[in-house]
Fold this protein.
Amino acid sequence: MINQIQGISMSFMLKNIIATLSLIYLTTTGIHAQQNVIPGKGFENIRIGMKIENVLIELGEPTLISSRKEESTHWKIFGYQPKNAFIFRLEFDNVYLFESDNEFLIWKIYTHKGKIIYINISSYVFENPLHKISIDNKFKMEDSHEKIKKTFEGTPYKKTKGIDYNELLYPKEGILFIFNSTQLKNVHVFNPIKKRKIKKMHDIYQPH
């Protein structure tokens, strides 16, 4: 009986030691849990509509905070036209830039009145292979344009003006896919857009 109890205790202690060592390994090596991007919502812990101060607890301090006017200037400096960009068709007042490594691959967060309205997720800025990002539990970064267009449910819109990248916009679902040529590199998440507002974007996006 005593031997049985001692055996159970040793087994329990061994399991605890293994669990602790696993946790230390994951922490020290920077391996993160799978993060899934939910169209129209964001991540489980970082969602559209959240107060930015709550998000900063998760992400840490941003590299830079810009106003809408400053963000527009930044775009122009790098040769882009804000009037032809989807984000500038939305209402925002501040942009939070994150250049420090984070497990969500979040590069920029746009806010309006202190709440998140748009999340820019980029593999260009963060290419750490240890990061695991899925989109809608179906896709991953570097998936093909063709795969997403065939598989993602919804009506895609393609950019027809000021083409800088190959884009697939799903306004009703609240997600924008950006490809370098054929591979997915950026995912933008926002509140689903109502049909009447989509029509106002027909000068730069058309059903595809």
